[in-house]
Amino acid sequence: MLELEVSLKNAVVSGEMNTIDRLVNKLIGIGIDEWTILTQMTKGLEIAGDKYNRGESPIHDFILAGDTMRQGLEVVLPRIGYYEGKVRGRVVLGVVQGDMHELGKNIVKYVLQGGGYRVYDIGVDIPPYMFAKKIKEKNADIVGASAYTTTTSYRLREVSTALEEEGIRDKVKYLIGGSAVSEEHVNWTGADGFAKNAKQAVLAADKLMSKELIL
Ligand code: B12
Fold first, then answer.
1. CB of 178 shorter than 6 A to ligand 1
2. Domain end residue (candidates: 63, 80, 97)
3. pLDDT tens, residue order, the chain (215 aa)
4. Are 108 and 178 within one domain?
5. Which of 37, 87, 113, 131 is deepest in the core (most CB within 10 A)?
6. Based on the structure, what is the number of domains in the chain?
7. Residue nearest to atom 21 of ligand 1 (CA)
8. Which of 45, 80, 115 is the last residue of a domain?
9. Which domain holds residue 188?
10. What average pLDDT is seen over the chain?
11. 76 and 93, same domain (yes or no)
């Protein structure tokens, strides 16, 4: 592994928020691909999370690592999200109520955009009715909701309930994800599909859209 790639990982661990964009640009400049950059930053974030969990660092350092990764993502993600072809579908994407984790959602947003989807990112800590409201407003084909903690994963069910209550459940495909979510969540949350990472999210969206076309 290149020394610069290791520095990138370490920059996230130690929260070098003001210099991470320069480092990411440097790596892009020497031809390192976006996925390698994402992987190294994610590894750094996981190390920071583990250190916090073991009580080896204060919450502040952990939050700073997250902010540093967000800063780095701002440089690298727009390079993935570029697509010139026809729009394949419209996606409303948000993180469920009570959950502030946003980095995975941000990656999924850009990778879906790169895969040809128009994404309406409604942010984090989103109440169920807001998902329904945005779907109607944007006439979305897919709603992507995510949860990153065990507690908030229960809220994924509330999103499909809100869609049912608003009478739009059969007009939209429901895709779920996030680190606290697995394939097993699909049934009890009333979702149509799950993806474990951003690349899989594009494949899952394609599958849901093509089903739509066949019906
Ligand atoms: C960074 C981080 C934070 C940062 C978040 C910064 C930010 N701006 O997002 C901060 C410091 C704020 C934070 C806070 C907390 N965190 Co935290 N956090 C993490 C950590 C280390 C990494 C998460 C992350 O961003 N990973 C990198 C991204 C790229 O991966 P990802 O999220 O999995 O996303 C990928 C896939 O899941 C998928 N995907 C993601 N979204 C979507 C959406 C759709 C629709 C689809 C299809 C796919 C998909 O694609 C993504 C890219 O491939 C994890 C541990 C871990 N190793 O995962 C803990 C973790 C998620 N946090 C945890 C906890 C407990 C908390 C706190 C409660 C801590 C506390 N004591 O205060 C708070 C919760 C605050 C809240 N209300 O939400 C726990 C959850 C445990 C559980 N199972 O319930 C974890 C697992 C740590 C642990 N092992 O204990 N956290």
1. yes
2. 80
3. 678 888 999 999 999 999 999 999 999 999 999 999 999 999 999 999 999 999 999 999 999 999 999 999 999 999 887 788 889 999 999 999 999 999 999 999 999 999 999 999 999 999 999 999 999 999 999 999 999 999 999 999 999 999 999 999 999 999 999 999 999 999 999 999 999 999 999 999 999 998 654 43
4. yes
5. 131
6. 2
7. 49
8. 80
9. 89-214
10. 94
11. no
* Cα 58 to Cα 151: distance, rounded to the nearest angstrom: 23
Cβ 94 under 6 angstroms from ligand 1: no
Asked if 12 contacts 41 with a C-beta cutoff of 8 angstroms, the reply is: yes
Task: Please say whether the beta carbons of 174 and 87 come within 8 A.
Answer: no
Q: Are 27 and 70 members of one domain?
A: yes
Looking at the fold, whether 161 and 205 belong to one and the same domain comes out as yes
Does one domain contain both 144 and 38? no
**Ligand 1 contact via 182 beta carbon (within 6 Å):** no
In contact, 106 and 135? CB cutoff 8 Å: no
Q: Which residues contact 63 (CB under 8 A, 6 or more apart)?
A: none
Report whether residue 179 contacts ligand 1, using a CB cutoff of 6 Å.
Answer: yes
Both tokens of 158, joined, read 């509330």
